[in-house]
Design goal:
Largest sheet: 6 strands, antiparallel
Structural class: alpha+beta
GO molecular function: hydrolase activity; kinase activity
Number of helices: 9
Distance between the termini: 71 Å
Protein name: histidine kinase
Shape: rod-shaped
Number of domains: 2
CATH superfamily of the largest domain: GAF domain
CATH architecture of the largest domain: 2-Layer Sandwich
Keywords: ATP-binding, Hydrolase, Kinase, Nucleotide-binding, Phosphoprotein, Transferase
Strand order of the largest sheet: 3-2-1-6-5-4
EC number: 2.7.13.3
Catalytic activity: ATP + protein L-histidine = ADP + protein N-phospho-L-histidine
CATH class of the largest domain: Alpha Beta
Helix content: 40-55%
Radius of gyration: 40 Å
Order of helices and strands: HHEEEHEHEEHHEHEEHEEHEE
Length: about 400
């Protein structure tokens, strides 16, 4: 642009450059790729300086050079391929070293600077370079190249510096977004790997339970006395109760908790399913429990329902067993109630292990066991703290 601008022309230039800065600020806020962002930047600066050739160079630490990343007005084979040195005889190299603008009015005859072949091929005479700052360091260089003698004044340098600062902030924001996306992607990959390992672990655990149950079934078949066979059957029921909890866990996509109502329903359906005369009803309070709490809670249900089936009803009798799951957020508790309308508890049975196990499992949960006295049958309630 000529140096003898009138005041009116200078004012129009300032206003035009303000509009260009505003336009680039809007562009920089859009979700553009880095390549499109820089290409827009070079096009706008070309318009602001009314020159045909502008370029952005990125500093590469590994090869130790400046790569032309974006530009307008250059012949094919320059953008994305041409590199410039970073020594003090290179105009952009001097800017990189000093983090300061470099202005050269007659590059072909300036003894302090080297005339790069890419600039000679385009007949470049005057250049101005400013640093592009990124996170407190020089990311690269913004260069305006004129193919005719040009005096770049303080206003030119100030505008180009402000523009380069805007570009640096936009690049830094994009880098932060890219790193965030990468972290989220890595977290997703880690979660997927963890879920895959969990599924594999659950599969192995299920296989182990099947091996244990097969071994117990084999031992039970070789047992002679009915009492011993019954004891083996009881142990198998308890192992199966634990296995069912792992089955429930494996059906939850990415979950680490057991839907306790579903678990209890599956558990009750597998406890002596041959007793057609007895109905087992589950009243679900929609509680979810971690596996380490669901297993002892499920074993409590298993023992109490098994006791009711064995002792509460006559062999040909009918009745009902209700399992009620309640959550009490005000008390911070989950309560399990198992009740039946049978003959009642009666005197303690010699060698009875079921109720002792219930007390032990309740202690493991940090809870308490309360036995009610209904008009008919039995009622046992176990309450324990809700999981955090």
């Amino acid at each position: 642009m000529p140096d003898d601008l009138t005041l009116e022309a200078r004012l129009e230039r300032v206003l035009d450059r303000q509009r260009i800065l505003g336009a680039f600020a809007r562009i920089a806020s859009e979700p553009l790729s880095r390549e499109r962002l820089m290409q827009n930047a070079t096009a706008l600066v070309s318009r602001a300086f009314q020159v045909r050739r502008v370029k952005i160079m990125r500093y590469r630490t590994d090869p130790g050079d400046l790569l032309v990343e974006a530009g307008v007005g250059w012949k094919p084979g320059v953008v994305g391929q041409v590199t410039l040195a970073i020594d003090r005889a290179s105009p952009p190299g001097r800017t990189l070293q000093t983090a300061s603008p470099v202005i050269i009015e007659d590059l072909p005859h300036d003894p302090d600077f080297r005339y790069a072949p890419s600039l000679r091929d385009h007949g470049i005479i005057s250049v101005v370079n400013v640093p592009i700052m990124f996170d407190g360091r020089v990311w690269g260089v913004f260069e305006v190249d004129a193919d005719e003698p040009r005096t770049f004044d303080e206003a030119d340098v100030g505008f180009l510096t402000a523009f380069a600062n805007l570009l640096g902030m936009a690049l830094q924001r994009q880098d932060a977004q890219d790193r965030t996306v990468e972290v989220l992607a890595e977290n997703a990959r880690a979660t997927e790997r963890a879920e895959m390992l969990l599924r594999e672990l659950q599969h192995r655990v299920k296989n182990n339970f099947q091996v244990i149950l097969s071994f117990l079934a084999l031992q039970r078949r070789h047992t002679q006395t009915p009492d011993a066979r019954e004891r083996f059957g009881t142990v198998m029921d308890r192992v199966h109760a634990i296995a069912l909890a792992h089955d429930q866990l494996s059906t939850r996509e990415g979950g680490a908790d057991v839907v306790f109502g579903d678990y209890v329903r599956a558990l009750c359906a597998n406890i002596d399913p041959g007793r057609d005369g007895v109905i087992i009803e589950v009243v679900d309070g929609y509680a979810t429990l971690p596996l380490d709490r669901a297993v002892p809670a499920g074993l409590i249900v298993n023992e109490l329902v098994t006791n009711s089936l064995k002792y509460a009803f006559d062999d040909d009798g009918r009745g009902m067993i209700r399992v009620v799951i309640e959550q009490h957020p005000d008390l911070g508790e989950v309560c399990l109630t198992v009740e039946d309308d049978g003959k009642g508890l009666g005197p303690p049975r010699e060698g009875g292990l079921g109720l002792t196990l219930v007390e032990g499992f309740a202690l493991q949960l940090g809870g308490r066991v309360e036995r009610g006295a209904p008009e008919r049958g039995t009622r046992t309630t176990t309450c324990f703290p809700m999981p955090l």
